[in-house]
# Entry
Amino acid sequence: MDRELFITRLAFINNDEINKINKNSSTVYLKALYQCENSIAVNYDEEELFTQTTAINNLGYSNDFTKIFILDKESLNDTYLDARKKLYKSINNLKEERNEKIKNIQAYLNNENSLQDNLNNQFNTQENDINLALKKYSV
# Structure
């Protein structure tokens, strides 16, 4: 068998795809909404890997996701799904803000390291100049 058939990868989903989710959407999209994930697992042929069967087999019947989105799917309503979508967007906004703060901290630390390297280089250069001068006069 071709090894590539078994490669799992993540396909990122956007806000438009989240907005289109309804109770008849595929299990993988409902799971992404439920867990506020911005990606889904697909195989080499772009087929979704998380299905009702895999959800039940891996999560079990007592899992909240399984209960809400699979076993009791008919009682899902737009009000609940809209609330989940708002939660999804809020959490993703928080993730983006956190990532932006992390980027700023990394930039600050990189700048500090660069300044420290410059100071070390200047010190080493001055120290070498002093050592050369001392050698010159000690001979």
Summary: The chain is about 65% helix and 5% strand. The longest strand covers residues 9-12. The chain has a mean pLDDT of 85.
